[in-house]
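Sequence in, structure out. Go.
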Amino acid sequence: MTVELPVKKLSDYSVFSKEDVEAIFELGKELKGLKVVHVNATAYGGGVAELLMTIVPLMRDAGLDASWEVLEAPMEFFNVTKKLHNTLQGADIEISEEEWELFERVNEQNARLLNLDADVVIIHDPQPAYIPYYRPDSNTKYIWRCHIDTSTPNLKVWNRLTSKMTKYQKALFHILEYVRPPFDKIAVEFPPSIDPLSPKNRELLEEELKIIAERFKINTSKPLITVVARFDPWKDLFSAIDVYRKVKERHDVQLAIVSAMAKDDPEGWIFFEDVLRYAGVDEDILFLTDLKGVGHLEVNAIQRLSTLGLHTATREGFGLVISEMMWKEHPVVARPVGGVKIQIDDGVNGYLRTSVEELSDAICDLLENKEKLSEFGKRAKEKVRRTYLSTAHVRRYLEVIKSVVK
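Output:
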């Protein structure tokens, strides 16, 4: 399925990073008319879909013939790929022969169904990873974009999955510690980005913030700790609740758990119920999800209404929600995992801590020192502006595409 895309203009982003925009236009002259197709699992829910909704239109504005295709697959397929996702992050889960056959069959079908006649095809994550294997030999160049933490995968699954991933010219990982054979010779460190002009990140008026605070019963007179995460065991939302409870012993605070239920994550519903039960009845724990009408604009407002961010994931591919919160001038207290480590500079624009006690102490330190809270927030925004905005991301893509086709 081809995804319909909005029109976006690179010139609108010059106010944030003029240097990156100028570099993109120069690269666009060299790559003008090149046909590039991105392929992923879903058009909504999750960070990859959000990224592509900005990246592909900006590639078009740079002069490329860019498009976005989404897999056509039954729910049973996503049950299997969720297992794949977990095993690539280290889970000891068995994938049956029947499940492998379904995975391969859906990839083979999509290799025929999707519009993939292009100079460069960029495959995102494991769900469509076998599509190049089932495409006839051609001049198409393939790039694999991995958005998850593969530093310590289940090797049985990793070796089987990658055995048919032989047609890729480049493999892009958030950080180099995720790279493993057979991609060590073609790997590129490639962090993602946030769109500063999207509904999720644009500036908001005070009136907009007030309306959303009232709608979701956010008490603006006391500190708000916000976690934005999918309902996924790796996000360890139980620890987030434990941290909140420890902080609550010293400060009158609220906790917002903000999430969306992604189409390609059926087990998320089960975990959602588990977390709800663990939270119990506490009017200061707010579950703010798309089930209550929380969309991108609402996430933006909730983050701006926050005092600081909390991220308790035990494994994390990158964690764009960290950059989103930092962009709103709020520090984040998080566990030092995956791509989180390169976003937060410990003791400079946030804190990296591991245990519930350490995380709660770090939050209390910021709540008790308003000047430090403000200074950390300013540094956090500047770090994102320099490194993790859409323009820097598009520039990196065009540089990799150029290296592949030239």
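Check: The mean pLDDT is 93. The chain has two domains: 10-193+389-405, 206-387.
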